[in-house]
Design brief:
With 318 residues, this protein is of the alpha/beta class. 47% of the residues lie in helices and 13% in strands.
Length: 318
Amino acid sequence: MALTVRDLFSQPLFVLAPLAGYTDLPFRRVVKKFGADLTVSEMISSNALVHNPDKTRKLAQKDPAEDPYAVQIAGNDPTVIARAVELLCQMEGIDIIDLNSGCPAPKIVNHGSGSALLKDLVKLEKIVATIKKRAGNKLTSVKIRIGYESRHAAQIARVCEAAGADFITVHGRTRAGKFEAPVDYDEIKAAKEAVGIPVIANGDITSYEKAQWVLEHTGCDGVMIGRGAIGAPWIFYQLKHGQSALTPEIRKAIVLEHFDAMISWYDTHGVALFRKHLHTYSKGMNGGSDFRQAINHMDDPEEVRNLIEAFFTPKESA
């Protein structure tokens, strides 16, 4: 049975944002198990998907636990995007096709994709309508920013709604603001008030308390968390269980689950790839520097796992 908007937003939605190099399948598996309601693939180029589908499909691959699941695409050519959506519709388990209209990276913007679409709302509307038409029974969503240089989130939101988007996610910075400018939550609120479809708030949501404040302030139907989950994927556990406190046992369980998923997906290469996560997981903890130094010189999965278990076990119960 196809996913409906009503079912998806039956309660405030907690969403993991796509982040290249971080929110791969193992990471998504962990946050899904510990509380995320919706996970999204890393951003996929529609051109790459159309011209090299076998290689690109791996980026769209989902874990069985990812239900519901969204795939995010980027592009600026409605014809190419239409074909990309058709290819995605042939894959099992995709519930939502999301258009990235917010990425500020120069290599994306210079090709007319990502937040460059915010400069041409006619084209944005055409692309969203194309996705909606070709997506069949899958939901259509759009990730936007509040503007390219000036702020006009309400106008952009209305364009997406008119084109047939089932819901939108609003990042509270302009493209010019990149990731450094203060997030304008009032502008996100304005976008929410301008449309009748669900709106998800995004930007600098780094704690349980901040997420609750953003939901209340903006009136949005959910929050999307990206960088705030890197090094702290347990934020979804906190949100799902309605508590700001986090026990050391839960932290250890999540770190070990993530490590095991990395080894399962990448085999022994997962050890090297997991080091960056261990660096953030151990930040600020007693003995963290020695722990990071040790794991930097270890390659055996079993040895690394034993060290992780020992380090993250609460000392009072060790």
